[in-house]
Amino acid sequence: MATGRTHRPATRSRGIPEATVARLPLYLRALTALSERSVPTVSSEELAAAAGVNSAKLRKDFSYLGSYGTRGVGYDVEYLVYQISRELGLTQDWPIVMVGIGNLGAALANYGGFASRGFRVAALIDADPSMVGKPVAGIPVQYIDDLEKIIEENGVSIGVIATPAGAAQQVCDRLVAAGVSSILNFAPTVLSVPDGVDVRKVDLSIELQILAFHEQRKAGEDGGVGGADLPSAAAVRAAAPAAVAASPASTAGRKGPDGDVPAVMPA
Amino acid sequence: MATGRTHRPATRSRGIPEATVARLPLYLRALTALSERSVPTVSSEELAAAAGVNSAKLRKDFSYLGSYGTRGVGYDVEYLVYQISRELGLTQDWPIVMVGIGNLGAALANYGGFASRGFRVAALIDADPSMVGKPVAGIPVQYIDDLEKIIEENGVSIGVIATPAGAAQQVCDRLVAAGVSSILNFAPTVLSVPDGVDVRKVDLSIELQILAFHEQRKAGEDGGVGGADLPSAAAVRAAAPAAVAASPASTAGRKGPDGDVPAVMPA
DNA sequence: ATGTCTTTGTGAACGCGTGCACAAAGATGA
DNA sequence: TCATCTTTGTGCACGCGTTCACAAAGACAT
């Protein structure tokens, strides 16, 4: 442990900006890597590079947590790992339930990474009776009817939804009613929840669409202000045949593999 | 189609704020749902509710695209679907490659949702020879050595990385060298790429950690200043036993299932 | 044609997040 | 003890994004 403890008592709780909170896991990951290599200290410059952010931003982020650092030296790796872990609430055990054990749900459940950061898969839940009892990642799948009981008994407050879009809101409602107050949503739907419940969403389809936007912008560049360019090699590619929703009319009757898709993906 | 065409010529291209771009897919999804129900028009209020945003924000977002709306009436659903699709570049076909066909990669590949929005899985690529040739989602897995050739031949400009963390940067470099300029990264690593290449990351572990932070904040409330809510049992739960990385020392020697984990998950 | 009613489009104010740049703090060596 | 050198912590300014609030635009009825 580095410097003496002239640090602020605690968290200054409410004061940590959301943007900073979102970066803490990045810092933690970089610090853990350093820790495993037994690096004793890091400068804000080094750590920022490892985390892919600006060093000034990193210092400001840390300043919200308190003054953990030694001028002229840097930050004590182990100490900082501990402080950030504590700040993020990773020094305690978080039992989570995952609802919807389809392709994606099963893939997520199969990660060993859960346990390594204070998260423990307390239960896997599905609505398909034929799945029930079948072990996924060593954990037997349980039936959706027992959702409330499972949450109750395991003291779960974080839930992961990996169901089809059509089922997501219903599952969400039941989770919330049973006491879950943080939800990670992989279903392509907007969930509505009461105040006090946090929802974060992961949506591959949206990410791809954002990438497509930028990709299109890159392709249609050198031309001019307007739009109809499409020049270079990259552009040639973009000029592929197919067209989805190309005409306003074509979208109407469609009812593809979407509309009820399992998880991360679709629009 | 609603009003006459007093609209601006085109996109005002560069002018669309990033935050707006990130919401366009949400609007598109909501509009598509309306379209399928044959709803002819929506007001900003209704659509905003469906997309889970503020109506003023939605109107401002749309104003960046041009003036597609009729005062006193609202927006023409079909027309707006088309405009947003075009803006996002979804009226063209985007071939993508996915590298790393493990649990997660396979799960992602299995989504039918890809094709439904202009994205087409051109190839699945893995470094495990025993995977090669095996069909996943109806597409035979190809060997990593052919990566460059595959990208070239298919004119791929968007790549998805679902490899273990340790392989991600290397795969990324090869993708970029081969001409890919947009990457969706599921590996828990910070990728460094040259200018002009867009990277978006999806990281379950980070999302969970952010949720844990807020969950902890909710739990440890009553004592402090702000809001002593949480009347229910939720608070009791958070006071769980176990502790990960509870002591600064405990983190050092650890080398769990992490460190090289496949994809979305770990820290 | 005219008035009323609805809903858009946007000017303006505000707040958050970012990055610069520097003073203060501490380490280190003479 | 004092000077120098490194690196933190932060005051400040700037720009982006959000939200309010309202004038303008158009639909619709009379």
Automatic annotation (TrEMBL), chains A, B:
Protein name from the UniProt record: Redox-sensing transcriptional repressor Rex
Cellular component aspect of the GO annotation: cytoplasm
Domain CoA-binding: residue ranges: 89-190
HAMAP family: Rex
Keyword line: Cytoplasm, DNA-binding, NAD, Repressor, Transcription, Transcription regulation
Annotated region (Disordered), positions in chain: 247-267
GO biological process: negative regulation of DNA-templated transcription; response to redox state
Primary residence: cytoplasm
Superkingdom of the organism of origin: Bacteria
Binding site for NAD(+): 100-105
Subunit-level organization: Homodimer.
UniProt GO molecular function: DNA binding; DNA-binding transcription factor activity
Role of this protein: Modulates transcription in response to changes in cellular NADH/NAD(+) redox state.
DNA-binding region, residues: 26-65
Location of the protein in the cell: Cytoplasm
PANTHER family linked to this entry: REDOX-SENSING TRANSCRIPTIONAL REPRESSOR REX, REDOX-SENSING TRANSCRIPTIONAL REPRESSOR REX 1
SUPFAM superfamilies, per database record: NAD(P)-binding Rossmann-fold domains, Winged helix' DNA-binding domain
Family that this chain belongs to: Belongs to the transcriptional regulatory Rex family.
Origin organism lineage: Bacteria, Bacillati, Actinomycetota, Actinomycetes, Kitasatosporales
